[in-house]
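HUMAN: Mind sharing a backbone?

ASSISTANT:
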Amino acid sequence: MNRDWSRRDVLKLFAATPVLGCTRPVPPPVPARDPKDELLLDEIQRASFAYFWDEASPATGQVKDRALANGNDKRSVASVAATGFGLTALCIADRRRYRRHDELAQRTLATLQFLAQYPHEHGFYYHFIDMNTGARMWNSELSSIDSALLFVGVLTARQHFPEPQIRDLATKIYERVDWPWMLNGGELFSMGWTPEKGFIDTRWEHYCELMMIYLLAYGSPTHPVPPASWSRWRRPTNTYDGITYISSGDPLFTHQFSHAWFDFKGKRDAFADYYDNSVKATEAHKRFCIAMRDKFPTYSSDLWGITASDSEHGYTAWGGPPATGQLDGSVVPCAAGGSLPFAFDDCMRVLRTLRTRYADKVWTKYSFVDAFNPVDGWANPDVIGIDIGITMVMAENARTGFVWDTFMKNPEAQLGMQRAGFHAA
C-alpha cells in the first residue's frame, strides 16, 4: 500500500489490463428483475443518449450545459462536466448499439482532439465554454470538480474504445493535468481558478462529490499529489430517522457523482464504506421527502426526490435532510435516477410513476424534464446535461455494472484507490 508507484509501474499495469472492446455482445438484463423495468430503463437511457448526441457539436464534441427538453435549442453554452458525462454516454451507446460503432468512435475522437488542442491551464478547463468555438463563457472559473468529471469520461472512453488514436489522446489529456498546482500550496484542492482573481479561496474540504478529484490525482503517473490529503477532508455525520451516515447537508447528488465511475461497492478505507453510506443517504432522503407529505401531499413512496436542479425560481441547491432551500413540493427525477444502484426497487417505483402517472408533464424527447412540481403543475422546459447524465450512467451501473467495470480497468483508478487505502470491506 505504501509502494512508491512510478510512471513505469502504471504503464506496466495498463499494458496488462485487457481492453474492453466494442465487439462483445450486449449484456443481458439481470434475470431476477422485472422485464418491464429493463424496458423502462432502456427507454430512459436511449432518450438520455439522444441529448448527448443531438445537443453536442459534431465538430468539437462539447455537450451543452442545458437544452430545451424537446429539442430545437439554439443555445451554445457547453459545460466540461456535461462533456464528461457525454463521453461516458458514447461508451454506453456503443455497448448497447444505439448507433453504429464508427459514428460513436468518430464523435469520441472529435471530442478528444478538441480537448487535446484546446487552451488549458495546467491541464484544467473552464467550466463553461462555447460548444462551437471553445470561447470561455460568463467569465467562468477553471473548475477542479468539473474538470474531474471530464477526466473520468475521458478515461472511460480510453478504456472502452480500442482505437489507438482515442487511447493516445485520452492519455495525453489526463497525464498533463498538474494536480499539485490546484492545491495552491495547501493540502486540499481549491475549487478553481480565474485569470482575473487567481485561486478560489474555498477548498474541497468536506465529504461530497470530491472523492473523484483526489483519487484521480493520487493515480496520476505524471503529476500525483501525496495521499495524506485523503485524511484531511472532513467526514461529518448526520442522523435522520435513526439512520446515521456521513453527510455535510449537501444535496443528494453528492452521494452519487463519484460513485458513477469509481466502484466503491464491497470496499472501504480507514473511515467508511462509502457505497453503504450512499445507500443510507438515499434511504434517509426518501424518508425525509415522505415525511413532508402533510405539507406536500403528492410525496409518497412512489414519488420523492429532491437534489440540486432547476426550480420555478431558478437553479437551486435544495434537498435534505436537513431541509435546504425553499422546498415547495417539487420532484427532481435524477434524485431517484442517480441512486438506482443504491436502492433499486425504491428508485424504480419513482421512475415508473413519473413515466406513467405524470408522463404528459415530465416525459420528453430527452427523457425526464429536470424538475417539476406536481402540486401546482409547473414543469421545467429544460433538461440539464449532468442530471440527464447521472441518471443514464447509474441506470447502466444498476443494470450491468458496465461503467464501473470499464472505468475501474484503468490502472490509474485502481492505483488512486489503493493509495487512498481502500481494501475489501
